[in-house]
Write a structure and sequence with these properties.
Keywords: DNA-binding. Pfam families: Glycolipid_bind. This is DNA-binding response regulator. By secondary structure, the chain is mainly β. It has one domain (8-191). Helix content is 4%, strand content 51%. The chain is built from one helix and 14 strands. The protein has one helix at 115-121, and strands at 8-14, 20-27, 36-46, 49-59, 65-72, 77-82, 88-90, 104-107, 129-137, 145-155, 159-164, 170-174, 183-184, 188-195. The strands form two sheets. A nine-stranded antiparallel beta sheet has the order 7-6-5-4-3-2-1-14-13, with no helix packed on it. A five-stranded mixed beta sheet has the order 8-9-10-11-12, covered by helices on one side. Strand 5 (65-72) and strand 6 form a beta hairpin. The longest helix has 7 residues, at 115-121. It is globular, with a radius of gyration of 16 Å. The mean pLDDT is 93.
């Protein structure tokens, strides 16, 4: 349904406050079915507090997260690893069983992490609603938690509904042929896209 990934750079801006995200996503080598790396820099503010964040997410060829690193400009850092099947550990090898079952991650402040379950599950309208446990990382505390989220395909390869499990937030997300969010109502707007 989505095209094979090539090196792509995209920018989004938040709809509230000032900010910008600059993300590059690419296959790690030229082979078909290569692992994927996304690297991004964000500046912005949340709840009136400014932040500067850099993150790197590595996925296998099936879009299952295998590791991620988030760093702030004030030297906070979080680095976690996954086996791709929902088992997490610290970079030092300490198991994190409270995140068992979380295959995808959700990083506050970026629409990119919506792409992970959309691409991984390859949802169609016939799939129904996928109910997921996400490893969620807020940018204010960097303390990961488990967050229930639902994804439903409204138009194959083009439009997906995101809904918080507690129904406190819902958004219909149009995506491009890479599965990257084009518009995130009330939160983000895409500014540009460049594919190599």
């Amino acid at each position: 349904m989505f095209r094979a990934l090539s090196s792509t750079t995209v920018r989004w801006r938040p709809l509230e406050g000032e900010g910008l995200e600059h993300l590059t996503i690419r296959p790690l080598d030229a082979s078909v079915g290569a692992a994927i790396r996304a690297e991004s820099v964000l500046i912005g503010e949340r709840g009136g507090a400014p932040y500067g964040v850099r993150y790197r997410i590595d996925c296998d060829a099936g879009w299952r997260v295998t590791s991620f690193v988030i760093e702030t400009t004030d030297a906070r850092r979080l680095h976690l690893l996954s086996d791709g099947t929902g088992h997490w550990r610290t970079a030092e090898g300490v198991a994190l069983p409270r995140f068992d079952g979380c295959i995808d991650i959700d990083l506050a402040g970026t629409p990119f992490t919506n792409t992970l379950p959309i691409r991984r599950m390859d949802l169609t309208r016939a799939s129904g609603t996928a109910k997921l446990k996400m490893l969620y990382v807020p940018f204010d505390s960097f303390e990961p938690t488990v967050d229930g989220q639902h994804y439903t395909c409204l138009e194959d390869g083009k439009l997906y509904r995101y809904q918080a499990e507690d129904r406190s937030f819902t958004a219909d997300l149009p995506v491009d042929e890479d599965g990257l969010v084009i518009d995130y109502p009330t939160l983000f707007q895409r500014l540009s896209l460049e594919t190599n």
